[in-house]
Amino acid sequence: MATKKTTTKKTTKNGVTVTTTTTTTSTAKKRKKKTSGTQIIPGVNLTISWKKLLGITALKRKFTKATGIPTTEAGIQRKIGKWLIGLITGKNSQQDTQKKKLLDENVQNTPVNTEVKPEEEKNG
Rounded to whole angstroms, how far apart are CA atoms 86 and 76? Predict the structure, then answer.
């Protein structure tokens, strides 16, 4: 919340009265610290997260890693945005990654000829 402070000064010099008005605006707010868990001791930054204790955080991470489906709001927005851009531009990121995987597999499975053939002797 912004607060305004106005001060007015009247000074007289050599028979002339000068009025000076100063307005100061302050927008500073007191912000409450956000903690992710429950504070054990008030005033000490040691917190316990009940989600971590129950293993929910690890479970969500494993699910996301295994399926590719994000569990956070930001991750979902990012995924939907990428999908929409793919629709607009005509690119499908899943097809592109599948093609890249196939190309990589073909390159890895292609035998590399490491034999050195001796040069044929020229009859001259």
Answer: 15
Q: Indicate if the pLDDT at residue 62 is higher than 70.
A: yes
- Contacts of residues 54-62 at CB distance under 8 Å and 24 or more positions apart, as own/partner, are none
- Contact of 26 with 2, CB cutoff 8 Å: yes
Beta bridge partners of 12: 17
Pairing status of strand 16-26 against strand 3-13: antiparallel
Alpha-carbon gap, residue 38 to 79, rounded angstroms: 32
Q: What's the DSSP call for residue 29?
A: -
Query: Who's near 17: CB < 8 A, 6+ residues apart?
Result: 10, 11
Express each pLDDT in 24-36 by its tens digit: 776 666 666 555 5
- Main-chain phi, psi angles of 61, to 5 degrees: -65, -40
